[in-house]
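About this split. The held-out portion is used to measure sequence recovery: a designer receives only the structure tokens and must propose an amino acid at every position. Recovery is the fraction of positions where the proposal matches the reference. Here is one held-out target exactly as it appears in the evaluation file.
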């Protein structure tokens, strides 16, 4: 996310001056092992109450942080779950390349890179 500083401030030893353009990498912590051990591993148990890795303050921010946090966050989460539920119950899928290794493309939001391809092999 880009922001324009409205006043001078210091961050981690850097002086940011009023009017400077700042890029805030809100999703960078999502890949940092100090917050998410073994961050590239699919580990759904991260979200269980005894671990709550996504609940550390300021760490999990796919919808931004602050006064401009995504207005559609709840809607988007429902749509994502709904789409996955419909897909997984109506079609069988397979990887086009079964040996594909996940690479993350960070722009515009972190996603599998363009070589991540799946195809429908059967309609149920
Ligand atoms: C996975 C889906 C989505 C992601 C990852 C996402 C992410 C974001 C992020 C990071 C921001 C903050 C941008 C900033 O602060 O500069 C934002 C803002 C916003 N999003 Fe989303 N969004 C998603 C879906 C949606 C949907 C479905 C809607 C509407 C139905 C929506 C409506 C908005 C609006 C209106 C803002 C601007 C809020 C403001 O400036 O006060 N988003 N979104």
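Reference sequence for scoring:
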């Amino acid at each position: 996310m880009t922001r324009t500083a409205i006043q001078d401030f210091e961050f981690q030893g850097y002086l940011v001056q009023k009017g400077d353009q700042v890029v805030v990498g809100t999703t960078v912590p999502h890949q940092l092992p100090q917050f998410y051990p073994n961050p590239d591993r699919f580990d759904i148990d991260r979200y269980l109450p005894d671990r709550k890795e996504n609940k550390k303050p300021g760490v999990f921010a796919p919808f931004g942080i602050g006064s401009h946090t995504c207005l559609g966050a709840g809607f988007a989460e429902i749509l994502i779950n709904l789409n996955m539920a419909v897909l997984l119950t109506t079609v069988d899928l397979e990887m086009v390349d079964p040996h594909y290794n996940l690479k993350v493309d960070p722009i515009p939001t972190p996603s599998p890179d363009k070589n991540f391809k799946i195809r429908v092999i059967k309609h149920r």
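Annotator remark: Residues 71-124 form one domain.
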